[in-house]
């Protein structure tokens, strides 16, 4: 396997209807150009769990919107978001990490040898 997370039919419904999960798609001229899935934990940490784009034209603006949505999300117990995190990998677009860092994210942990890129 290449590390790609694949869900089908009822699995998507089960994933996206959990109380702490929210998902949005971005559209331009009725075409889906991106998807983001956010998940909040009990302490108010919100993860940008999935962030995907088709093309590069709207990446920065869509990520900025995803961050605003994450900051406004509530934890299952009602707490406001206290921290937003994003996980990336060597398979991310080369501009991914610089984009995250330009928006205030910083590396928390770097791991080596966790699969094939």
Net shape: globular
Count, helices: 3
Describe the main β-sheet briefly. 4 strands, mixed
CATH topology label:
Aminopeptidase
The domain tally reads 1
- Uncertain stretches of 5 or more adjacent residues: none
CATH class, named Alpha Beta
Determine the N-to-C terminus distance.
Answer: 11 Å
- State the helicity in percent bands: 10-25%
What class, by secondary structure content? alpha+beta
At the fourth CATH level, what is the homologous superfamily? Gcn5-related N-acetyltransferase (GNAT)
String of helices and strands = HEEEHEH
Record the strand order, biggest sheet.
1-2-3-4
Tell me the β content: 25-35%
Radius of gyration: 15 Å
Mean pLDDT: 81
Explained architecture:
This protein has one domain (20-102): 3-Layer(aba) Sandwich (Aminopeptidase), CATH 3.40.630.30. The chain contains 3 helices and 4 strands, in the order H-E-E-E-H-E-H. The chain has helices at 10-16, 59-72, 96-102, and strands spanning 21-28, 31-40, 45-53, 83-86. A 4-stranded mixed beta sheet has the order 1-2-3-4, covered by helices on one side. Strand 3 (45-53), helix 2 and strand 4 (83-86) form a beta-alpha-beta unit. The radius of gyration is 15 Å and the shape is globular.
């Amino acid at each position: 396997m290449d590390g790609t997370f694949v869900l089908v039919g009822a699995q998507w419904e089960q994933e996206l209807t959990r109380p702490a999960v929210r998902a949005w798609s971005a559209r331009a001229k009725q075409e889906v150009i991106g998807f983001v899935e956010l998940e909040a934990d009990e302490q108010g940490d919100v993860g940008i769990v999935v962030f995907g784009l088709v093309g590069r034209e709207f990446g920065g603006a869509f990520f900025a919107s995803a961050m605003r949505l994450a900051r406004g999300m509530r934890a299952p117990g009602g707490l406001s978001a206290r921290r937003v995190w994003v996980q990336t990998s060597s398979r991310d677009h080369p501009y991914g990490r610089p984009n995250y860092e330009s928006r205030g994210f910083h590396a928390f942990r770097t791991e080596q040898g966790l699969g094939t890129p």
